[in-house]
Structure formats: C-alpha cells, structure tokens
Specification:
The complex is a heterodimer.
Chain A lengths: L16 H15 L5 H18 L6 H17 L5 H16 L12
Chain B lengths: L15 H15 L5 H14 L2 H13 L1 H9 L1 H7 L9 E6 L4 E6 L8 H4 L4 H4 L1 H9 L1 H7 L9 E6 L4 E6 L11 H5 L4 H5 L9
Parallel strand pairs in B: 1-4, 2-3
Classes of the chains: A mainly alpha, B alpha/beta.
C-alpha cells in the first residue's frame, strides 16, 4: 500500500494465467445463464469468509484459490462437472504434461 | 525439492489449481456448455481493453461538462451505457462525488465487487482481508497508509459494494487545471482516486 504511482511498474491484471482462466470461465458461465451473479457472489463470499477464519487472506493467490474452489463446488452441485469427473480430467492433464517432451504442445491423450 | 531447470525431460507441469481449471474447461467444452473462443475474448477484454482509463475518461468529462456530471450523479447507468460502459453482470453503477465536506471510499466487505467496466480487475489489496475489514472500521488510518490526509472537516463515507450495486468515486478536480482539456484531465485521474484511496494528481 505504498503511494508511488509515478514510478511503480504497472501491475499485471492477472498475476497467473490460471487466475485469468478461472475468472473468464466464471464470467462466461454467468453470461450463458448457468447462474446469476448474485448467486455467485453469495457462494464466493461464503468461501472467502470460511478461508479467512483460519488465516488472513492477502487478496492474491489465496483469493483465486477460493474462487476456484467455489466454482468446483458449484459445478459439482449443479451436475455440470462432478467432483469425480473433475479429478479424472485433472489427472489426465497432469499425465499429458508429464509425458509430453519439453517444448512440444501438450494435448490430452485419448 | 531439487529441480534442474536447464534440462526438463517433459513439459513444465502447471501448478495444481491450473490443472483443475483446465479440467473444468475441458469437461464443460466437451459437454458443449462453454465456448473456448468466448473465454479468450473475455480474457483479452479484461487484460487489454478494460481498465482505469475508462473511468478516467468519465471523470474528466464530468469535470468538464456540468450537464454530464449532473446526469452521471443522478443516474449513472444510462449515461455510462451511452459511452459503452455497462456491467456484464447487470449491476447498477452509482457515482459518488468527493467534496470538501465529504470524501468517499469504496470497499466490498463481502468479496471484491468492483466497477469492472470502468476500472477493470481490482488490485490485490482491494481483495485482501486487511483492506476489506479495515476500510469500514478505520478508514482514515487506511487512507493515511495510502498517503491521503484529509482536512479534519472532511467527513469520510465508505460505500460497501454488492453484487447489484458498484460505486465509482468522482474525485475532486485539482486546482490549477482550469485550462486543461479532457485528455489532459484524464491523465490526472488515477485508479486509486476513483476507489477513494487516492486523490487526483496535481499537474506538474
């Protein structure tokens, strides 16, 4: 919270690519009518509150981790992506990264 | 854990949450529930096209055009929609004006509701527990940490954003800017001055 706007480098909008991806995914699902924004905020606030009980959230990585957890639970509850489906797909992606030579594009295996 | 970065036998494994996001994207794409091109468009918009420069243009115009300012303060939604700034989540925008009597400051105590179309994605500190909790409790102390000291006669009002209502602070126009045009004025309007944790810059 230092006031030094003239010399500070511009802050990146998203610190990590996955922050941007989970943000965009949520906005897109809202716009596609999957859930209302008020409904999203209610759930997300509850997650933040729960996480914030055990430690102080810094608004960076921990914020988007709470965002992702909220989205996973939401999609599992509404049936769009069950926890089991998500786990299997996550592991398939991990396997794809680990079995792709460095520098080559990473694709899921059949 | 030792890890030799000069000789990766395989592609660099993204962190766990990145894999989980990819998993959701793949599942929803396969089910036809999302359009990957739309995701790219949203990321591009927020990374490159939407940011505090939008809000700064609105503030500069409000400083220059009394009718615009009056309309903006009375009912911001139609005025902003005309400029192409509307909330994708259907939220209402409210513009609150700083005066000598009242300084306005915006927070979202629940999460991080923020006027995206005008300011883009909020900075990390806006989303932190520290700011969210303290802005309401001890706003003057928080302002002091941002380097803002107000005259004692200026009251501080804190506006708590929600999913439905987002606030934009209309900062006070700096003195000595009477001859400046809208573009020059816009350059004085910082992001923080539109959240209320800063003041507009004084021309050098």
């Amino acid at each position: 919270m230092t006031a030094c706007p003239e010399v500070a480098a511009p802050e990146p909008v998203f610190a990590e690519p996955w922050h941007a991806q989970v943000f965009a995914l949520t906005v897109h699902l809202n716009e596609a009518g999957r859930f209302s924004w008020a409904g999203w905020v209610e759930r997300f606030s509850a997650t933040l509150k729960r996480h914030g009980l055990s430690r102080e959230l810094d608004g960076g990585e921990d914020y988007f981790r709470a965002w992702l957890e909220t989205l996973e639970v939401f999609l599992a509850e509404d049936g769009a992506a069950s926890r089991a489906e998500a786990e299997v797909m996550r592991n398939r992606w991990e396997e794809a990264y680990l079995s792709t030579p460095h520098g080559a594009p990473v694709h899921l295996r059949g | 854990m030792p890890h030799d970065h000069s000789d990766h036998p395989h592609a660099l494994l993204p962190p766990d949450p990145a894999l989980r996001v990819k998993a959701l994207e793949t599942i929803l794409t396969e089910k036809g529930l999302i359009d990957p091109a739309a995701l790219e468009e949203i990321i591009d918009t927020y990374q490159n096209r939407i940011g505090p420069q939008n809000g700064a243009r609105v503030v500069a115009r409000a400083w220059s055009d009394p009718e615009f300012r009056a309309a903006l303060l009375a009912d911001a939604d139609p005025v902003l929609a005309e400029l192409g700034y509307y909330g994708r989540q259907g939220e209402h925008m409210v513009v609150v004006e700083n005066t000598l009597q009242q300084h306005n400051m915006v927070v979202c105590t629940l999460c991080s509701c923020y006027p995206w179309p005008l300011l883009g994605i909020p900075p990390g500190w806006y989303k932190s527990d520290a700011y969210r909790a303290r802005a309401v409790r001890e706003p003057r102390k928080v302002l002091a940490e941002f380097g803002v000291t107000l005259p004692p006669e200026t009251a501080v009002r804190v506006w708590d954003s929600t999913a439905e209502v987002r606030y934009l602070v209309l900062p006070m126009r700096p003195e000595g800017t009477e001859s400046l045009g809208e573009d020059e004025l816009a350059a004085l309007v910082t992001r923080d001055s539109m959240i209320g944790t800063g003041l507009a810059k004084v021309p050098s």
